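Sequence only, no structure available. Ideas?
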Amino acid sequence: MREQNKLLKQLIETRELFTYDFLKTVLIKLFVNSRYEREGDLHVWKDDHIEWNKILQLLADKFEIISNNDYLLYRPKGGIVLYEKYKNICNDMKYIIYRKY
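Reply:
I predicted one. Tokens follow.
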């Protein structure tokens, strides 16, 4: 209960509770998809993930990989100190640049 009060207080102080995006998220989670996250699709569910190895295999015959990078996306909400702490040890984004043979 104490943790919920802390979260509610934070939502009010940051005015997040009164935004359209917050209301939209609540409605989507309640009526459409309980696993929806507005901050991004994190693929943490057992049945919801990207199989990068399969993608790489499928494209290997017709495309050359120019760049393949995993990285941690900086988000101002988290702050630069937190980003600097974790940028070299974890990632939440990936990009692959291909060139067709």
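DSSP finds four helices and two strands in the chain.
Hope that gets you unstuck.
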